[in-house]
Amino acid sequence: MHQGECLCGKVKFQITQKITDIIMCHCSECRRVQGTAFATNGNVESKNFKFLSGENNLTEFRENDNKSRFFCQSCGSPIMAQLKNNPDYTRIRLGLITNEIEEAIEKHIFVDSKANWDVICDDIPQHKEW
Ligand SMILES: [Zn+2]
Ligand SMILES: [Zn+2]
């Protein structure tokens, strides 16, 4: 069980499962979307992801025909991404989770395209791309 919220607190959600497939992605797309060195995202089944408030305060950014990203229209916090061809899963941004995350991070990906100032200092497996 996890809870999460955006920076302004309008968007609040609850997750009733362990988060799976937790990956730190260093690709240029994730860097731009988050404004950071890398994105740390994980999967939950959409049926186990529930908004407690603020669902109507989301803005959808259609990145392409298949992928949409949702962010809080008040504070800009990135909340989640969804794929049209895989609606059963929601990809959530771990930085929004307010309780402790015990689940392990699986890997770093797109390490070959990371920013030159991004120094990886852990023993989690690294992949050049996927
Ligand atoms: Zn917000
Ligand atoms: Zn990425």
UniProtKB/TrEMBL annotation:
InterPro entries assigned to the protein according to its UniProt record, in alphabetical order = CENP-V/GFA, Mss4-like_sf
Which SUPFAM superfamilies does the annotation name? Mss4-like
| Leader sequence segment | none
Keyword Metal-binding among record annotations: yes
Alphabetized, the UniProt keywords read:
Lyase, Metal-binding, Zinc
Task: Cite the CENP-V/GFA domain residue spans from the record.
Answer: 2-118
Under the heading Pfam families, the entry gives: GFA (PF04828)
Hey, which family's this protein in? Belongs to the Gfa family.
Question: Per its record, how is this protein called by name?
Answer: Glutathione-dependent formaldehyde-activating GFA
This chain's source organism reads Bathymodiolus thermophilus thioautotrophic gill symbiont
